Amino acid sequence: MFFNYFKDYFLKKKLKNSLSNAEVIPSNNKVQTIGILVDERSFLQTLALKEALIEHNFLEKNISIVVFRDPFKVKELNEYPTFGWEHINWSFQIQEALLLDFVKHPFDVLLSYYDTNNGFLQWITSQSKASFKVGFFSVDKRLNHILINTQTMNYKEFVQEFVRVLQLFNKI
Question: For the whole model, what pTM was predicted?
Answer without folding.
Answer: 0.82
